[in-house]
Amino acid sequence: MTSHGYAQRVLLGLAAAVVVLAGIHGARGVLGPLALGAVVTVIVHPIRFPLERRGWPRWAATSTVVVTGWLVVVAIVGLCAYAIAQFASMVVDYRPELQAALDDLMSWLASVGLDSTATDAASRAVDPANLVSFAASLGSSVLAVAGALFVVFAYVLFMSADGARYARADEVYGSERAVTLERTARYTSGVRRYYVVSATFGAIVAVLDGLALWWLGVPAPVVWAILAFVTNFIPNVGFVIGLIPPAILGLVVGGWPMMLAVIAVYCVVNVVLQVLVQPKFVSDAVDLSLTLSFVSVTFWTFVIGPIGAILSIPMTLLVRALFLEPDPSVRWLRWLSGDNTAVPVTTVEERDLVDVAEEPGA
């Protein structure tokens, strides 16, 4: 293929991607719950296999998968809603103390010579009314997901029922569609490993943060431990979201020393585990580079809404499985994305496949 033809192919591909992503963004109210239902179904699907091996009827195993998936969705939404509601309630309860802390902050910033623009920005950042609005906006996002629970439940129900049939795909089309089935199995296995790693580290972080906050005397340490667990499913930046409420309450209850102590605890525990250690395990579990994992959060949050932050890794893996893995000519892109199985072409047969894929009419 000539350089001109290659450039034309790249430009057409980028243009098509923009159109598709614009359509997904416009339909995010429909596709967000669909993606959540699909990921939950992928996570709980293996439950059926040990049950069927023990002689359970297929309908009973499917029912167990469905109920487990529903419980997972309810737990996620319930924990988020509870933590946000508690934060909003505490902001209202501690509003006088917050206002006093804000006034002290403004006086200190003015004393060190910062101009009015900087002090106004800091004032808006920690203003109690803005904090309540921030909590309300997060709550509205959770309520939007909660309002779509019926749709998500329906997706989990139907996908779990279909999953019982699709589990026989190896028997029916094993020889004819072996590559596709292997790619699908690799994707679903990667999604499950990712959430197992995230849940494990999230539980460790939640326990350590909760104990530290309890020892420091920050109000409602259990709530912030729950928030730390939930935000751990947001790669790299989740700990910052989980830090804001306890840090603000630490400022109100114990002043700057307690706030700095809370920040120090989160930096030691969360940065070491979530930012330095966990991404290595995640990248090993799903073969995804650290940079791409980080970028995925912002990208999918923009495309499909807040739920995209939690689903960012599975969505990125899906795009790679659909558009990069079937094409031998873009193995280098797979390798750049973190896929260590994307080795260079070494055999004559593989080179022939690459040549065919790169032909203008292919």
Please tell me about this protein's structure.
By secondary structure, the protein is mainly alpha-helical. It has one domain. It has helices at residues 3-26, 28-44, 48-53, 58-93, 95-111, 116-126, 128-147, 149-166, 169-173, 178-216, 221-231, 238-286, 290-304, 307-310, 312-324, 331-336, 348-358. The longest helix has 49 residues, at 238-286. It is globular. The model is unreliable at 353-362 (pLDDT under 50). It is a multi-pass membrane protein. The chain crosses the membrane at residues 7-24, 30-47, 59-85, 134-158, 194-216, 222-244, 256-277, 297-323. One of its GO terms (cellular component) is plasma membrane. It is found in: Cell membrane. This is AI-2E family transporter.
Uncertain runs with pLDDT below 50, 5 residues or more? 353-362
Instruction: Report the helical percentage.
Output: over 70%
Q: Tell me the fraction of residues in β-strands, as a range.
A: under 5%
List the domain count as a whole number.
1
**Elements, N to C (H/E):** HHHHHHHHHHHHHHHHH
Average pLDDT, to the nearest integer?
A: 78
Find the structural class using helix and strand composition: mainly alpha
Number of strands: 0
In this structure, how is the largest beta sheet organized? none
Radius of gyration: 24 Å
Number of helices: 17
Q: Write down the overall geometry.
A: globular
Measured between the Cα atoms of the first and last residue, the distance is 11 Å
